[in-house]
Design brief:
Helix content: 25-40%
Number of helices: 22
Strand content: 15-25%
Structural class: alpha/beta
Number of strands: 29
CATH class of the largest domain: Alpha Beta
CATH topology of the largest domain: Nucleotidyltransferase, domain 5
Shape: globular
Radius of gyration: 33 Å
Mean pLDDT: 85
Length: 702
Amino acid sequence: MSILETSSPLYQKLISNLNVVVDRALEAFIPPPEMSSTDWANEYRWLAKGTSAKPGKYSSDLTPWVPGMLDALDDPTIREVVGVKSSQVAWTDGVWNNYLGKRIHLDPCPILMLMPKDSSINKYLRTKFTPMIKATPVLADLVNLTSRSSENTRDYKEFPGDGFLALVGSNSPDNVKSWSVPVGCVEEPDDCAGDVQGQGDSVEHLRDRLKTFEDSKLIFGGTPTIKGFSRVEEAYKNSDQRKFWVPCHECGDYHVLSWGCVVIPEDPEANHETYGCCVPERAFYACPHCGGEWDDRQKNINVKSGEWRAEKETKGVAGFYINELYSPFPGSKFELLAIKYLVATHRLKQGDEGKMIHFTNTTLGEAYEYKDGSPDAETLKERAEQYPVLQVPNSGLVMTAGIDVQPDRLAVVLMAWGRGEESWIVYWGEIHAQTSVNDINDPCWFELDRALNGVYRHESGAPIRIAAAGIDSGDGNTQDAVYNYVRTRKGGIGPKLMAIKGSNDIDAEIVKIPKKVDINGKTKAAKWGLRIWMIGVNRAKDLISGRMKLTGSGPGRMHWPDDIRPDFYAQITGESKIPSRKHQGKLIWTRKSGANVEAWDGIVYATHAGRVLRIHIPSYAWDDREAELLQGDLLGGAVYDSDFIEHIDEHPENKDYAGVKPRAGVKQAKIITAKEDREDKPQPEPPASENQRFKVKKKIRR
């Protein structure tokens, strides 16, 4: 019998095999089924033994808050999904891994996952990614976990459909900058590098990698750390702020699960060395509406009927908050959470905040707030006083300035000082550059001349000038322009002008006299013939923060006018002192997430300038200075520049630069080095004698 005869067994087998080949070939042309990430997970996902509390077929019923998060990831109108969460709420495995699995299987594309550091990559691959791929058959066929090639390395996994997953650490700018992807995930944003080798925030670098894609998606989730410094908390504030509302089985009213509703009964006869009279094994949850008691079982039942509700109308950014009280897992029972809380409270009473920080972050899913008694922005605003901006009150006898340099503007703080270092903010504002501060001929520098060399009105009617000013030279991108400004104004009619920089030594004194210029030195400052004044910023901010807590008048008190620029208060409260990982847990002044602090820095620089003038020493010649000021003859009848404030704060597009000209005698474009001008010696240190000190200051202010 011929194999070509239709009744032949071989013919039948050949046809069968051919049908299989054709079917498989046609599959490549069939579009993937339209499935939500939740449906995909419920149909295809498997949980591995050893890495899951409940291994086997995945079910979203166990964590009923997860589907709402996945729906947001599927929504094409939402470009960013933010998750503020505690531990034990299935964020990485339930939200991110389910979304990732669906993309690998049905909708492949380039995906970039940003991790805090390389060790985080290893942990994720070992405990989350690899177990998911091995346990889920449809993924095991698509991702090769064993081969080593350019298509498949430890931190780079390719899959069919021109898709890949690249995992990068946040500690290197090249790790992030070398990719362009439509989907990005930031795991634990608060732990990612804030400044990658001086090239900016690693998270912002990732955002830039998504900009070229119309359908980009950023997944941004993690546990918040410190209030005001948390990236994920800040991102949540800018979202629609969804929370998971749960009904009570007794009254039916909905609410967001909160630690304030957890009740830990007391037994007067109990006397535990850590728990005291509290009995954590009897802990339960009480409905805030009816007082109905929930045990762990009833809580888990109630949570299954919960729903997400947004608190804000924000398009394009969905934010979710979830804490461990929602968790159904054995390690999150009320008894265990109560023990965790009682231990943290006990340690806190002994002065150890560590356990309470951990409880707040990992159980409540909230940022921990350090409380040092510093007044907030609203309190400081209420303490504002009635005196005009740009006028020095009667008790102010010496003026200083601090200038913070930004790429597009100069931020200026003017302060007046009196006996006992009582101080008054005379002005806070910004001089915007027409092009860039790096252009040494930009009008902003000549307006700074106007500010520093200007004549200000004392409340007595006498004119007063700035005696000393510090200008920030710490940014390498603007350093040349600052050095040029200080160098070309040296020895002029203006104040004692200092190029300043914050010291890396967190214990450095506020003022450290710089060494004499080494004209043969190899530093950039030496080539410019400049001495750089290093500021002990940590101590300076301690001093200023302490003074901001004082009220009334007298030594050390600070004052500010009620018509000061409105952002002043947010800026001077834009930093807090928190533990630094870089400095072995020591408390360091750190900028809050998203805060601008130019006014705060300007006060630091102006305070440093005052201390360079030695106004803090008891023997400072205040009487002589007061007599000199009131005589009113020092400046020879100079006229106060009354239109200064109206001009200085305008933005470039609204500003008329026609009348802004270089100060007479300023060498503009020519760079003068120390070797070209050896006779320009550093200014001498203030002499020991009071009379001599006064003469030096008088000379500087001429």
